[in-house]
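step=encode ok
step=design start
structure_in=
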């Protein structure tokens, strides 16, 4: 839609009024701004480093398993390419079936470990997210107490060409986290004093048992799933082998019959 000259004048006038009013409001109330360095904060939270180390160890283990399986597939492909000329059609087909099954297993494991809802996502949520929530809660409390209007993260994608150290509240956040940790530790100590004859409270014991049961069930489900896939793979290979055996026996029977027929004709 094209604006008329009169509409343009009205639009420009409204824009000027808006800008002047914004400047006036800003002058009336100074904005309180601060920033944090999230990387610095997390690197100084022991729980986060411990969680990250656990996650990194798991990721290294998973990638090692995938690399091992991938090397096996590539080696099998190379061996097949080198030996194809001396192998029978049945052996070639067996090798190709094995490669296909291993490739399917590789894709399944990649999805299981690193998929959108895979083990890495779940473990990160279990280990890292509680620490991140703790940091964000501390930031929120400081913002509310000190009445900041904006808080930026220096370590994010936001480009900060200049930052005055006096507006950095990272240490305040860390101190708040340490204070909350000490309060929680003192609370646990008082709870232990109230239950001197028990190593853990009933609630803590239940939480430990529930967590162990959940981990055990997850592992059992994983092993059951793996066993089911392995059994299906073996059955498939066995079915293929049985079909080939039957086909080979039929071919052998046909060959023998032809030989017998030829002998009978020669005798006649």
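sequence_out=
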């Amino acid at each position: 839609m094209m604006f008329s000259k009169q509409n343009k004048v009205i639009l420009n006038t409204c824009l000027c009024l808006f800008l002047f009013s914004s400047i006036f409001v800003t002058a009336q109330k100074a904005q309180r701004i601060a920033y944090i360095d999230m990387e610095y904060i997390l690197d100084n939270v022991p729980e986060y480093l411990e969680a990250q180390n656990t996650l990194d160890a798991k990721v290294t283990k998973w990638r090692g398993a995938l690399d091992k399986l991938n090397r096996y597939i590539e080696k099998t492909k190379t061996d097949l390419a080198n030996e194809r000329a001396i192998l029978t059609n049945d052996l070639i087909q067996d090798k190709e079936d094995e490669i296909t099954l291993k490739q399917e297993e590789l894709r399944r494991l990649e999805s299981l470990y690193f998929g959108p809802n895979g083990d890495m996502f779940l473990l990160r949520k279990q280990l890292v997210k509680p620490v991140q929530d703790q940091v964000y809660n501390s930031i929120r409390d400081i913002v509310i107490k000190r009445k900041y209007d904006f808080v930026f993260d220096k370590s994010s994608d936001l480009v900060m060409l200049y930052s005055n150290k006096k507006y950095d509240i990272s240490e305040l956040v860390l101190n708040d986290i340490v204070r909350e940790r000490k309060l929680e530790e003192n609370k646990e100590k008082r709870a232990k004093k109230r239950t001197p004859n028990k190593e853990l409270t009933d609630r803590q014991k239940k939480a430990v048992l529930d967590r162990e049961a959940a981990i055990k069930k997850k592992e059992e489900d994983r092993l059951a799933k793996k066993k089911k896939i392995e059994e299906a793979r073996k059955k498939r290979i066995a079915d293929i082998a049985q079909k080939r055996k039957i086909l080979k026996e039929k071919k052998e029977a046909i060959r023998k019959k032809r030989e017998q027929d030829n002998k009978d004709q020669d005798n006649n």
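step=design ok
step=annotate ok -> The radius of gyration is 35 Å.
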